[in-house]
Protein 1
Amino acid sequence: MKAKISSLGCFVPPRILTNDELSTIVDTNDTWIVERTGIRSRHIADANVATSDMAVRAAQEALRQRGIEASELDAIILCTVTPDMLFPSTACLVQEQLRATGAWGFDLSAACSGFVYGLTTAAHLVMAGSHRKVLVIGADTMSRIIDYTDRATCVLFGDGAGAFLIEPSEDGDLGYIGFLNEIDGSGANFLKMPAGGSRMPPSAETVANRLHFVKQEGQQVFKFAVRKMSDLCEKALEKYSLSASDVTLLIPHQANKRIISATAERLGLPESKVVINLDRYGNTTAATIPLATRDAVESGRLKKGDLVLYAAVGAGYTAGVNLWRWAY
Ligand code: UT7
């Protein structure tokens, strides 16, 4: 049995933070941010909004698009690195808010590769025949773990959520083709939130030293991402006897326009085959791929039968590629 993406929904908080506004908070400017990252603005959640709230909004939209009730869901996979709290899982909080009374679920922690790993997992649950409706949600409130005194990271991230419904595909030619996912823990130190876990529990000292915020060695991550994203895309295409010329759209994780352009160039894909929307959203971690997919669908760039190449690299390191033939 094959699995297909049958609907999607997204949510971004209404408040927009522009580069000019950021330049009043830290020593930065619009020119540097646009040239080095491609980002122009990002959405930021109000103080009373947490990851589960955005996840629920995205999920409700996906269910509405498909015309089904939350009670029909079999499972919820919630991809995030900014859960409402360490436990219970945000999947549980979302299940309760949605009243998804027939679903089990869990949080999936894979940072920027989270949504790709979630899609792989959901596809295999459906293909096994044991699940008929799996909701994959990517949701991150990055503004809660960003240090707005660190200009090297605070300009990069935004908040948002997106959800895909995965169901069995009646048409064998449409839906999930396959995956190539990897982790490489040798990169763990280059992008992390050091404190708050069992290694370094919260203390007055961890707070004073600003260790509950994202720490990144940007150039290390950049170099790894540029190499890994194109390598993995090439290997994944080869694994399924496809080539870059078969790809209708590359929908990559949105971290830096330069990473995306380098990947596209290495694969020989023209700009018309690459989705970039980080100018408006920044890096929303697990939400970038659904947000970019929604933009592609709404602008008419994605149609039934098209071959979609999803690719992501992130903290861990984590990296993943998924191939799907668009089904609606
Ligand atoms: O999604 C998770 C994975 N994460 C990523 O993919 C991020 C990967 N890394 C990157 O995208 C890039 O490394 C950054 C955008 C984070 C940084 O760009 P870069 O071209 O690697 O800059 P850099 O860190 O080498 O810094 C160059 C200069 C430095 O100044 P000096 O030492 O040359 O005087 C920085 O202090 O740019 C300075 N700089 C800034 N200047 C203005 C760093 N951040 C800023 C800023 N505004 N916001």
Protein 2
Amino acid sequence: MYRATLIPGDGIGPEVTNAAIKVIEAAGVDIQWDTRYMGQIALERFGNPLPEDTVKSIENNKIALKGPVMTQIGGGFRSVNVSLRQQLNLYANIRPIKSFEGVKSMYKNVDLVVFRENTEDLYMGIEHMVGTDAAESVKIITRHASERIASFAFNYAVKEKRRKVTCVHKANIMQLTDGLFLSSVRYIASKYPDIEYNEMTAENLCMKLVMCPEDFDILVLPNLYGDLVAELGAGLVGGLGVVPGVNIGAESAVYEATHGTAPDLAGKGIANPTASILCGAMLLKRLGERTASEKIHNSVIKVLAEGKYVTPDQGGRASTDEMAEAVIRNL
Ligand code: NAD
């Protein structure tokens, strides 16, 4: 039996993570879930959106499944997601972006993986007012963090037999910060002569991703561009409901869907559980349960392709639970 932390989160989080847990159980993997809270629900219950015991539980179990949590925008609070990543040093955000048959999207053959540096850049939250009418944000890029995310991406490329890594930057404008990111990735690339390597400015990448996404394989980016491009990537394959992700560090891995709490759907039981179930499949792979992981992945592919038991965002009529049950039947 394994132990893992479960953070149901806010909004649709409890509904979609519950669907993932049911599917994992049905795939025959026994996980004892240590349920902890963060976000709005934790703020209401404990007066703290990121209680210490939640972080400790992930530190102990080293693996977690997390639902989305509500973040106050511009309210003076730090994002609890960013805090969690920094406290656990979850330095890599990885999002596999893949086309699924049956999912309405503009493209058919997208298969790329985004590796986003997760701990620094403008997301360190070092901001201050300069007088009353100007504000300043500090962008930090270090060689250590840049080489670390690049190594992660190249190691993954070797392990998963991928063909190409593209480094995305704006070193033409931010010569020191993005220049350091670029030279760090270039240095790591030089150690992997068998993996094709190229570089692209962020705006050029955005255009090319929209024009010919099938040309891309692995993208490695600093934090801010990584955030934007990962979401653009989700748009290429049918939206947030179908893209899983993981925040990973040397010690722990936190699996979470790309989407937010979807307040418009919360409590209605119709949120698409695909991303969360695919997160569950990724989590099982890390536990070494490769067969169960593949079974879940293949079953999701079948259910989406058939299109009979899919949620309203995919043009279907199924509830979150009915879609999860269909995935279970097809395991
Ligand atoms: P959102 O992803 O919650 O919603 C955007 C749109 O996508 C909505 O129309 C929603 O109904 C739809 N959608 C999202 N997930 C879906 C699903 N599984 N099935 C069907 N439709 C789905 O983004 P938002 O509205 O910008 O954010 C809402 C809240 O979520 C905010 O408080 C934000 O801070 C938070 N958020 C949290 C995370 C996280 O914890 N990782 C990520 C993104 C946003």
